[in-house]
Here is the input.
Amino acid sequence: MNTEQVRQLISQGEGNTVEFKENLPTPTDLAKEMAAFANTDGGWLLVGVADQGEIRGVKFNEQSAELVLNVARNNCVPHLHPHIETIDLDGTTIAAIRVERGRQKPYQANERIYVRIGASTRVATQVELLSMLQESGLLSFDQLPVLNATLDDLDLDKARAYLTQQTDPAHLVADSEVLELLTHLKVIVRYEEQRIPSIGGLLLFGKAPQRELMHSELRAARFQGRDVVGPISDKLDCRGTLPEIIDQATEFVRRNRRIVPRMEGIRRIDVEEYPLPAVREAIANAVAHRDYALTGSSIRLFLFDDRLEIISPGRLIFPVTLESLGHTRETRNRLIVRVLRDLGYIEDLGTGIRRIRAAMANSGLRPPVFAEEHHQFIITLYGATVEKNGITAPAIDATAQWGLNERQARAVEYLKTYGQITRGEYCALTGIQKSTAHQDLQGMVLKGIIVQQGKGRGVRYVWNRPASDDLPDD
Here is the structure.
């Protein structure tokens, strides 16, 4: 870390990932701060800086560094491995202790589990502890029992239909096999010598899942205007099993989306405001991956005049980040993901986000926006909208000017946004076979538009031009 980076951290003040200490804390307090960072998003402990950001300096020698490492080893469980460095700021020394976001959560300090919330450190709640256990792969929340439910709350006909679909079609699953198979899948779990539905089991095959899990509904609303203060023209509380909720929410968007005129040359064509494949994928993604341990929040779907927002309780699960979204794969709800995959609602290959991007690009629309705010993950899709001078969504206009076919031009728009594309993504974007995709991509390689990298299944094609650059004249 250089002096400019340190000054920038100090200027931002204390927060979720930064803590100031005028002097090196006691071992008890030091363990507490480091464990809290590891349990949350990682962070910097800057020693020699007062609470308001005044740089006071500190005497920090080899013995001080050894103390920090000993505390990380002996007072934190599992052990932590902080990075320590000293920085000279105009003749004043401060120490920077960096703790990475942990991979073995939860971390204990002084026999307690702490988290970082804003600029403060506090003991984790039960819900936060459950989320940490999920993140570390030690617990799949959807496989925990629903204590107030019984087997009578499951729709065994729905479960039998699913099981039959997953086996030989000629083999009809017998009644005696259903409970055994559902127990094996963790749809049914044992609790105090009884068999009762799991959370995922009730959500997937329950007769009335919201009776016990009220927060599992999806609340949809169509607002007039561009924010939530506008009047609501339509709303729906989507309830039932998770597949039913996905279908209801998708239908809600379908009935509320508009048909938008677009001019292509002298021809007028009508386009849909949002491509339904992107909408359905985004809804299914929220339903499959939300944090069901957060019982005070439901998924919300808001339609505005210019965009669609899907707000899902729970942040991205480690190691997935906003930067790696669509390429790094992990899930907190293993049972839910498995069944929704088997039923065809999602892909279990980590391709859902890329399919959303491809569907939006294929319709000539802005790329989707992904964000994390507090304990929420938000997907925003910008639809085709009309203003005085026509459509505001970006048009694909590279065919004649750049000597490309329409498929290649669409790929150029995709590349400008994401920087690279695979043959599979090209096929999803354009709807063509792999052999034709290979020919198109090789043509773009020969023109110098993209560069092929990797071998075999790892081949990808990387954008070879700055965003402002035009392709060379033929």
About this structure: The mean pLDDT is 85.
